[in-house]
Amino acid sequence: MNENSEKPSNISEALWIGAGNMGLPMASNLISSNKIRLSVHNRTPGRLLPLEKAGARRSDDLSRSLSETPLVFTMLADDAAVRDVAERPGGILDKLPAGGIHVCMGTLSPTFMDMLSEKHQQKGQVLVSAPVFGRPDRAKAGTLTIIAAGPTAALDSVEPLLKTMGSPVFRVGDTPSRANYIKILGNFTLGGLLETLAESLALARKVGVSPGQLIEILDTALYHSPVFRAYGQIMAEEKFEPAGFWMRLGLKDVRLVLREADKLDVSLPLGDILHAGFLAGIHRGYGEWDWAALGRVRDDDAG
Amino acid sequence: MNENSEKPSNISEALWIGAGNMGLPMASNLISSNKIRLSVHNRTPGRLLPLEKAGARRSDDLSRSLSETPLVFTMLADDAAVRDVAERPGGILDKLPAGGIHVCMGTLSPTFMDMLSEKHQQKGQVLVSAPVFGRPDRAKAGTLTIIAAGPTAALDSVEPLLKTMGSPVFRVGDTPSRANYIKILGNFTLGGLLETLAESLALARKVGVSPGQLIEILDTALYHSPVFRAYGQIMAEEKFEPAGFWMRLGLKDVRLVLREADKLDVSLPLGDILHAGFLAGIHRGYGEWDWAALGRVRDDDAG
Q: The 3-hydroxyisobutyrate dehydrogenase-like NAD-binding domain covers which part of the protein (chains A, B) (predicted)?
């Protein structure tokens, strides 16, 4: 436990599941904070090596590790991956002790989160949902923005740990899915920015306006926004690899939004365009490019 | 002529046409710069009173004023208004002396600008197109962003005068319509931001996420943009009056973009949504509300 932590956690050990492009640097920051002893688990154990070198213990027997921990983090890609480790025999619901906390940090469906929260409650366990904004570079720097929702006492316990991965940590209430709504709405707005840039630059190219100059002028005149400028430049330069965020994941997130909207009879015309645009991009072979390759889709169709 | 001007204009007098919500503060800043003697003309002469008090001379006989000036500014609402003063007998094309410069500062159609430029050339006159980004508050403060295109010598002459109304002045080449493309593409991107916010907030309300909190979190986590925050807050608070920019004008500008795109066989799916959304808003009585009332349109339809 770090003597300097602003508000020490009452928990001294935890299990971390997920060592992908985001999970790896996030767990690494948690380890180096010295706030907690961390065991780490991943479907592909080879990915855990950097975390073991940093001082984490490798968990090979997930079922046993779960039964010995008061706290488990999951940073997994989608609902299916979380469902797998949560609902399998010997998984989180089965083995996490009563009173244990599951902090679920991926970008997941709010409906799945509501369902998982209820199952945890039935087991006497607690679900905290804490999705993050930021790409791997911000995960490495520990400057993610974290949206956290769940029961107050559990949020109090894990907040100092979340702060090792990013700040601010926005606490948005006691219903876990609230955090997921905010996360997927945020990604939806980024999708809207991409579509806006994609169409603007496609027309700019056709009328002989320099895409790079257009982005510079509009950011200076109107936006003053690093996000506007960064995505604008990726599209102006058509530099879609390496991807910061795959087009396939963009499709996943716009689907999450459209499904929630559909349940509530909310029409999202921009959402429908994004869905069709990302699908078109994937079918043209851009699925593992940055989702800003939506610009290429619009350029293709502008001739 | 102001001794302190960084690059004095070689022109000592000019005529200003247009005293609307933008033209009035822009002309006022030009007068108070003392860089030039200004005559002013407006279809409704009563609007000119503040400019006369500031030291401008009122031009009642437009034809005569034009024949005596080396430089005329127009800050008028649309193509039709400029066409009227430019093409009527005794108008700008008819009376501006050979070598005279017409600086056209409204948000106009690039196609119209190309046509007008050719007509000016046939008369030995020069067209500079210099549309602006910024609402009336920025016009008053003299902090507009100005996009200027036209022959180099003419741009050199008028740039010190443009700088009394805003900076930076972006010079984007010698084809006047280039400036108009950038201006209408810029407004198109703002329309895209409005649609994005409108759909996001409509869904947020339905799922119980506070619109104000969503805007705060997303601006902190992702955008860091005064424009994102300002339009987000207008929509979150549903404060569509007083309007900074009418929905009717939003429709006008998206039509300018769609018409140029259509000529070039460029499809703009987001543009089509904006066109339908602004039209719907106008038919529901929101035409003189701020164009952010696109949020109300999406809320209406989300039930």
A: 180-294
